[in-house]
Deoxyuridine 5'-triphosphate nucleotidohydrolase, partial (Buchnera aphidicola), 129 residues
Amino acid sequence: MYVKLFLKNIKIIDARIGTVFSFVEYEYQKTIIFFLRACIFEKKYILPSQTLLISTGILIKRSDQLYKYSITYLKDMKKKYGLVIGNPLNIMNSFSSFFELKISLWNCGKYKVYINPGLKIARLFISLK
């Protein structure tokens, strides 16, 4: 029910989303949850203590005050790869037009980590305020 309301503020800019990369959403009470994927065209790597800005292939319009947007990390990314997102539990409330959503990944592990196209990197929560 809420998916259509929330999706009016999201534009997919990478044609692979929904075809090559699944764009799965979950509805829980008045919240929609999307897995954000690395929309890159070739494998990239992040050295220890380095960061990399990764495109998610979507634009978000943040013009009305009805919705709250937040990004959270995936526990498996930290546990399996030693990766965390920059500014975890990021709440986005100050944007007035469409902007491309990118995720900053930080390698806090000891080894070089490869990021493959389509890798799940974070979750986007959209809820009514």
Observations:
- The chain has one domain: 2-128.
- The longest strand covers residues 51-61.
